[in-house]
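Quick review question:
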């Protein structure tokens, strides 16, 4: 099976704040946001997932729209190749003191799985999405 590499497309770090105007208040809100996005991805409701992420993600709107379009395209291919989604699994929760959180999830399909990684950063106003990426490299989680 051909490996679809999307990490470079979806892993963006931005220092400028353009569309981001809300902040998550605490760690429980970051976890709730991640879970919501995972379930939306599992249901192939990518536009709604990006609508949920956008207010907390300091990324220019045109870049977010481009990422969303590419994600929709590739997820449709994944659904064709991997089959129906059959569940989710939280794999890992990592922190750097009280300033950064990385949450890793797996979405299981009939024939394979994809990985979603959320990175949150705490600034003076609260938690923001620092990075979000997804790929089909779930085997990297064996390390």
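Suggested answer, residue by residue:
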């Amino acid at each position: 099976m051909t490996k679809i590499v999307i990490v470079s497309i979806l892993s963006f770090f931005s220092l400028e704040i353009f569309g981001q105007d809300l902040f998550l208040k605490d760690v429980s809100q970051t976890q709730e946001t991640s879970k919501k996005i995972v379930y939306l991805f599992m249901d192939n409701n990518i536009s709604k997932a990006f609508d949920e992420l956008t207010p907390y993600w300091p990324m220019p709107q045109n870049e977010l729209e481009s990422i969303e379009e590419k994600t929709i395209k590739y997820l449709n291919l994944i659904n064709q190749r991997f089959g129906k989604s059959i569940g989710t699994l939280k794999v890992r929760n990592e922190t750097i003191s009280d300033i950064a959180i990385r949450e890793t999830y797996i979405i299981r399909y009939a024939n394979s799985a994809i990985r979603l990684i959320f990175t949150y950063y705490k600034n003076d106003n609260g938690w923001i999405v620092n990075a979000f990426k997804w790929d089909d490299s779930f085997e990297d989680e064996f390390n």
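Why it works: Helices lie at 7-10, 27-42, 46-53, 61-82. The two ends are 22 Å apart (CA to CA).
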